[in-house]
What does this fold into?
Amino acid sequence: MKITFGISSIFLLLAAIAMLVMDFITYRQAKSFSSPLEAYKKHPKNWLVNLLFFLAIVFAFLFIHFDLNMDAEFKIGGNIKQGFVNLGLIFQPDWSFFFGYGKYSFQESVVWFIIKTFGIAYIGTLFAAIVALPFGLFASHKLFGNLAWPFEIILIAIRTLPEIIFALILVMFSGFSYVSGILVIGIHSIGMIGKLYADQIDGIQKEPMEGVLACGATKWQQIHLAVLPQIRPNLVSVALYRFDINIRTATILGIVLGADGGIGYYLSTQANHYHNLGACIIGILILVIGINAVSSVLRKRLL
It folds into this structure.
């Protein structure tokens, strides 16, 4: 599909402006009025909001029509008909490829690559959950006040780049291997887990902290005796939540990292072999749904 950006790109800009103006108009601030009549006169103009929303939709469709030319790409015909044929092949997975028998060895099976994907996500998350704890402590404004800002900025910087960009950078140092996958998952997760740790710490009660401080405790004794006991279940819950996300992320790392990167390698190499692709999709669904179910049960028990 050829994408050109000409004068019709202005339509996309106009759509964005319309959405921003609509957001500004609908933004609610606490105000006081002297009478119900004054409050009625200054109520939000719903017709203007609806008009802006309508214009945003129109401009977006105009951009799609003129710049992306998507109406030609999705004409009822060859593309869509062939798509349904290929979809039917996906629902007929090659089970020998899934389990690794017949002409496939176990090391070539979907099951083996799913195990590798799980291992990358698990080790990466465990590494991040441990390393993120000091970052979360130092990024807590309740514990360190304005000194927390540098650590908060570091956590923001870590989670700014997508995992795929991290992978492209790390392969220059550790090569196309599972080590790169673990580092990608681990380093990127530190940014999110550390931020959530800091939020949990900022939400704790002050009384236990003040109590141990009155007894002459140092800052680190205060953290050990009054802070960590309050947040320990929440820390585990945060790590489990991130593990759910990392399982999904790990499924696509193989596209960049190759065979050692997990099931994502097969997603790229088997994209046109629909029976094999169907086996890969089934494996991913089993992995993601299973981990999500177990993680949800554990989080409910902890909280």
About this structure: The chain has a mean pLDDT of 83. Residues 9-75 form one domain. The CA atoms of residues 244 and 292 lie 6 Å apart. Residues 219-257 form the longest helix (39 residues).
